[in-house]
Amino acid sequence: MPKMKSKSGAAKRLKIRAGGSIKRSQAFKRHILTKKTTKNKRHLRGTTAVHETNVKQVRAMLPYA
C-alpha cells in the first residue's frame, strides 16, 4: 500500500503542537496595512490555534503529523 500524501500547502502553513492542537499564523497581515490600526496589527502578530470546527479537515490534510 502506498503512503498517503499530505497537502503540501497545509504542511507549509500548519504545525501540530505537543498537546495536539494545531498552530496557524494569523491572516490579514500581508498588505494594505496603512488603513489598519496599530492595535489591530499588533493583535495579528504571532500564532493562534485552529478552531475546533476545522480541526477534522486539517488532520485529514496532514495524515502523518
From TrEMBL:
Keywords: Ribonucleoprotein, Ribosomal protein. One of its GO terms (molecular function) is structural constituent of ribosome. GO terms for cellular component: cytosolic large ribosomal subunit. Gene3D superfamilies: 4.10.410.60. GO terms for biological process: translation. It holds the Pfam family Ribosomal_L35p. It comes from the Bacteria. Belongs to the bacterial ribosomal protein bL35 family. HAMAP family: Ribosomal_bL35. This is Large ribosomal subunit protein bL35. It comes from Georgfuchsia toluolica.
